[in-house]
Amino acid sequence: MITTTKPAPRLSARRRSTGRPARGGRRPLRTWVAAVAAYVIAALFLVPYLEMLVMALRPNDELGLATILPRHWTFSNFTTLWSTGLGGSIGTSLEIAAGATVIVLLVSLPAAYCTARRRFRGRAAFLLLVLATQMFQPAAMLVGIQREFTNFGLPPTMSLVIVNAGFNLAFAVWILNAFFSSIPVELEEASMVDGLGRIGALTRITLPLAAPGIVTALIFTFIAAWNEFLVALTLSLGQAPSQQPLTVAINNYIGEYSVDWGHLFAAGLVATVPVIILFAVIERRVVSGLTAGAVK
Amino acid sequence: MILALRRLAPLMWLSPAIALIGVVVLWPVVVLVQSSFQQIGGEGFVVGYNGTANYVNLFHEPDFVSVLLRTVLWVVAVVGVTVLLSLGLAQLFNQRFPGRRVTRWALIIPWAASVMMTALIFKWALDPNVGVVNVILHRIGVVRQLGSNQADWLGNPTSALIWMMGVAVFVSLPFTTYALLSGLQGISRDVYEAAAIDGATSWKSYLRVTLPLLRPAILVATLINVINVFNSFPIIWEMTRGGPGYETSTSTIYMIDLKESDVGQAAAMSVFNFLLVIVIVLVYLSTTRWKEQVG
Predict the structure, then answer these.
(1) What is the DSSP-derived secondary structure letter of residue A97?
(2) CATH class in words for B50-294
C-alpha cells in the first residue's frame, strides 16, 4: 500500500518527492507516476530504432506487405550484408573516425593543458577562437571546404580526417581544460619534488587524473566523425562505394526506383549500435563539454 | 633572449590547435567569401571575377523569399518546441525513480545515432503503401486507404514539413534535455525549501524559482540548438530532398542544391546564411536580455 494519502507537512512531502524511498522501502505515489511517465517516454525514444531491427529481420519478399511485424523473421540481410561491399565502408569510417580522434587528442591535450596551467597574453583570445569554431558548422561553409580540399588534392579519407578533427577540436579543448583546471597544481609540484620530473609528473599524475575527460573527448570525437554525413557526402562523391564512409555508403541502397530497405537497416544497425553503447559510457559528461565554453 | 623564449612557449603548445582551426575553419570562410564574388564553371574552375552578380542573381531567384521565410519558421518552431518539451523532460528525469539510468539510456539514442539514419527510419515509416506509421494509422482508421494521397505525408509540402519538424525536434530533445538537467542539478535544494516555507505551491515555485535560475542553461541550450537546426541537412535531404520544387527547402538545403548548378551563387547563399544566423542569434539574445543574466 502507498501511504502518502495521509496529510503530511508540506516540507517533508517535498523532500520525499525528490526521491529517496520513504522509510520501510515504500515509495510515494509521485515517484511511481514519474517512473511510469519516464518508461513511456523512454519507449517512445526506443521504438524508431527497434523498427530498424524489425525491418532488418524482415524477409525481402515481405517488404511489400502492409503489416506491422513480418510473418517470418530472417537473418539473411545480415549474412549477405558483406557481399554488398559494406566491409570496405566500415574500414573507411573507422579510418576517418580513428584518425580524427588521434589528431584531436594530439592537438587538444597540449592546448588544454597550457591554457589550464598558465596565464599568458592571448590566452583568452585563444579560448574565444576555439569557442567561436563551435558556432561554425560544416554546412554553413561547405563551398569553402569543398573548394579548399579539392585544391589540396588529398585522398578523400585524409581530407575527412582533417575536417572532422577541426570541427571537433572545440569540444575536446573545453572539456580537457576543465579537467586540467580541476587538478591542483600542488599535486604536480609535489611529485616533481619527489623526483618524478616534469614529464613524469605529467604522465604519471596529471594525465591519469584527467583520464575521464580524455575518454570523453576521445569517444565524442569518434562518434561525431563516424556519424558525419554532409562533408563525407560532398568529398567522397564519385568514389567506389567501398571507399565511401558508412553514412554515405548506406545511401547506395536507395536506388532510383526501389530501396533495398532490408540491407539499408541492417547496415544502419551495424553503424548505430556500437556508437550508442559508446555514448552511454560518456553520457554524464558530454553536456559539460558542449556547454562549458558558453557558460564560462 | 631567454625571456622572449619563455614568452613564446605557450605558442608552441597552442600552435597545432591554431593551425588546425586555421586550415579547417578559418580558411574555408575566406575561400567561401572569395567564391561568392567569382563566376565558377561546372567543373569548379574559376571563370573570373563576378562582382556582386552572384548576390543579385540570388536575390532575384523566384524561390528565395519563400525559402527564407520557411527557414525562419523551421528554426523558430523546431527550437521552440524542443526547448518547451525539454523543460518538461528535464523536470521528469530530475526525479528519482527506480530504473532512471535505463530510461536515460533510451533518451540518448537519437543523440548518439546518426541523424541521417533517424531520418531514413521515418522516411520508411511514412511510406504511403507499407510504412509502419501508415499501417498503424490505417488500422485505427485515420488513414482511410493505404497508398492514397492522404497516406503520402511526404508528398504534400505542408504535412511533409510538419513531419520533418517532428523528426528535427526528436533528435534535438536529448541534448537539450541533458543541458537543462545539468542546469537543474546546479540549483540548490535549499532554494526550494525556502520557497516552500514561504508557502509557494509547486507550480508557483517552478515559475518563480526554477525557471529564473534555469535561464543561463536555457539560453545556452537554445543558442546551440538554433545553430544546429539552422544548419540541419540530413533530415530534409533524406526525406523530401527539399521538394516538391523547393517547397520544403530551408536555406541550407537550397544552398546545397544551388551548389550543383552554380558554385558562386551557392557561396553567396552561404555568406547570406551566415549573416542570417548572426541576426537570429542577436535577436534572440536581445529579447532574452542575456546581459542582465550574465552580468
Answers:
(1) H
(2) mainly alpha
Rounded Cα distance between A136 and B30, Å, is 13
Distance between CA atoms of residues A182 and A209, nearest Å: 10
Average pLDDT score over residue span A133-139: 85
Residue A53 confidence (pLDDT) above 80 = yes
List Cβ neighbours of A69 (8 Å cut-off, separation of 6 or more).
A54
For the beta carbon of residue A240, count every other beta carbon within 10 angstroms: 11
Q: What one-character DSSP code corresponds to residue A21?
A: P
Each residue of A167-189: b (16+ CB within 10 Å) or e?
bbbbbbbbbbbbbbeebeeeebe
Residue A123 has pLDDT above 90, yes or no: no
DSSP letter for each residue of B110-122: HHHS-HHHHHHHH
Contact B224 A290 (CB under 8 A): yes
Note the pLDDT of residue A193: 78
Element (H, E) at B253: helix B251-261
The A residues from 270 to 289 touching B (CB cutoff 8 Å) are 271-272, 275-276, 278-280, 283, 286-288
Cβ contact A18–B21 (<8 Å): no
- From A136, which residue of chain B is nearest by alpha-carbon distance? B25
ipTM metric: 0.86
Interface contact A155, partner B, CB < 8 A: no
Distance CA A239, CA A158 (A): 14
Helices (H), B142-210: 157-185, 189-197, 202-205
Taken in order of first residue, the domains within chain A and their CATH numbers are: 29-74 (no CATH), 86-295 (1.10.3720.10)
Confidence of residue B52 (pLDDT cuts 50, 70, 90): confident
Residue ranges covered by each domain of chain B? 50-294
Identity of residue A208: P
Residue A27 has a pLDDT of 67
Mean pLDDT of chain A: 83
Element (H, E) at B58: helix B53-59
Q: Cβ contact (<8 Å) for A103 and B20?
A: yes
Chain A interface test: which of B23, B25, B270 (most A C-beta within 10 Å): B25
Contact criterion met (CB below 8 Å) for B90 and B221: no
Taking residues B275-291, what's their average pLDDT?
Answer: 74
* Banded model confidence at residue A18, pLDDT cuts 50, 70, 90: very low
What torsion, rounded to 10 degrees, do the Cα atoms A201, A203, A206, A208 define? -140
| A8 interface with B at CB cutoff 8 Å | no
Scanning A194-233 for CB atoms below 8 A from B yields 223, 226-227, 229-230
* pLDDT average, residue stretch B57-76: 91
Q: Do B233 and A139 contact (CB within 8 A), yes or no? A: yes
Q: What is the pLDDT of residue A130?
A: 86
How far CA B102 is from CA of A35, A43, A283, B16, in Å, comes to: 11, 11, 12, 40
Q: What is the pLDDT of residues B98-154, one digit of tens each?
A: 888 889 889 999 999 999 999 999 999 999 888 889 899 888 888 888 878 888 899
* Whole-number Cα distances in Å, A209 to A114, A178, A192, A288, B100: 16, 12, 16, 17, 28
